[in-house]
Amino acid sequence: MKLLATTAALAGLLMAGTAFAADSYEVDPAHAWVSFKTNHNGWANAHGTFKSVAGEISFDKEDVTKSSITLTIDAASIDTNHEQRDTHLKSPDFLNVEEFPEITFTSTAIEKTGDKTAKVTGDLTLAGTTKPVTLDVTWNAEAPLPWDANTLKTGFSATGSFNGVELGITKLADFGLGPDFTLDIDLEAVKK
């Protein structure tokens, strides 16, 4: 009877370990960078960044295809190093931040491409329109904070692209912009 109880307890632990193989992380907003660039009338690439980024990551190191990520970006936090341009980009001509205050990315599939790399496909929602976008992601490192061994941090870098017109920003050409945007994302996240 004792052997049966021990076996059942061990099986329960193994099943629980399988069910909860993914670790949960919260994106550190002070160490999250989402930047973009797009062609400006052939003269140069116009650059910008978003200053307010939050998100949750479920990271299964044994099987990354079972991982997931959700990112939420405050659309009004856009910064292109020019206040008047930023105000215009927040208007209904572009991001329409009053009606659509958040830009979101929610992963839908992950394909492992190397020891520390993957293609992460997800739904990008921008100005009320949702389209699939694929990001090339690299897992950089995971380690405890040097000043706090109890806090574990992990980090990722990602790149991707999308067509702004397809995501509902139809006036890009009126201002000599786009239509294609390149994304660069760097995130540090703290294990919960």
TrEMBL record:
Secretion signal span: 1-21
Record keywords: Signal
Stored Pfam families: YceI
Domain Lipid/polyisoprenoid-binding YceI-like: 24-190
Keyword check for Signal: yes
Annotated protein name in UniProt: YceI family protein
Species of provenance: Ectorhizobium quercum
